[in-house]
Request: fold
Amino acid sequence: MVEVIRGFSKPIHPAQILILSWKTPEECLRKSLNGKIPVREYVPKQSHTRLDLQQIDDLVAAYQSGSTIKELTAQFQVHHTTVSNVLERCGVPRRSRPLTPEQIEQAIKTYQAGSSLKVIGDLLGVDGSTISRTLRRAGLEMRDCHERQR
Reply:
């Protein structure tokens, strides 16, 4: 009866039956790592870090003294949206770093040479969406994601 129930509860894949017919359990253990079956270590996908009041005060003070959001994410080991949300909740106005005319000219030339928005953004230290907005404001015809003119 146990065999009948086992057959319905968790059927064995045909490939597993083939492997089991080739090797005994002892052979499988001998060929593994010193007789131990390798087990993958659990790694959480996300970690949730809650900032206490002192850390929030330190974060706001560091931002107001000139630290960038990217620097604060590394310092407090939180996501950049967490830093942005904390600053917004505390009523701290965000700094915008507009591109200089020289940077805009460099972005236009680099984009016309075929570089992607992300590559240009990395080159100038800003996000690709900032480059996209800047180029559109400059009246540049944008390509689609397959490098074709729109």
The mean pLDDT is 78.
